[in-house]
Amino acid sequence: MKIYLEQGDITNIQADAIVNAANNELWMGAGVAGAIKRKGGIEIEKDAMSKGPIEHGEAIESIAGKLNAKYVIHAAGMRSDGFISKESLSKSVENSLFIAEKLQLQSIAFPAIGTGVAGFPPEECAKIMLDVLRNFKYTKLEKVILVLYSNEMYSLFLKVAENKEIEL
Ligand code: APR
């Protein structure tokens, strides 16, 4: 399994699953969720919400609508009241990986969960996400792509990754 860092819009990435930075009620607001809904269609939100609410830290899969993916995996790092913690962030990433393995996917793309509307510190997010991704016991997944929207976020994740086990 290889971890890739890419800068860009996650809705343009080709992967078996695109991860949405979700809240636990699974309605899709701004940020990544807004972009996925705009590009993939409102049916993604309808499908996701039909499987909620969930606990923050949990994740569910939905259809991917018009996106170039088989599924959207909604990782609820944040609670709908805005609460987010190290635990809910790391759990939402780990639970997304469990779902991808359950679905026998080969590739998955993550955004920097929590670092937008939820206001989670980006450097801590990078450490937590890379830690979960590096320690997970993969069976089917071959490619995990971290998609960073801004140049700054990309550079930060690159610094935190210290080029260990990262494909650029
Ligand atoms: N592609 C990749 N990354 C993106 C994109 C995009 N199209 N749009 C935004 N981002 C980045 C943001 O800049 C931020 O660094 O994704 C990171 C996560 O930001 P949010 O999407 O705001 O997610 P989060 O902070 O986890 O808040 C989740 O926001 O939109 C609502 O419905 C959503 O309630 C949920 C909450």
Describe this structure as you would to a colleague:
With 168 residues, this protein is an alpha/beta fold. It has one domain: 3-Layer(aba) Sandwich (Leucine Aminopeptidase, subunit E, domain 1). The chain contains 5 helices and 7 strands. It has helices at 31-40, 42-49, 86-102, 122-135, 151-161, and strands spanning 2-7, 17-23, 59-62, 71-78, 107-110, 143-148, 166-167. Strands 3-4-2-5-6-1-7 form a 7-stranded mixed sheet, sandwiched between helices. The radius of gyration is 14 Å and the shape is globular. The mean pLDDT is 96. Bound molecules: adenosine-5-diphosphoribose (APR). Residues 9-11, 21-23, 28-35, 77-78, 111-118, 147, 149, 153 line the site of adenosine-5-diphosphoribose.
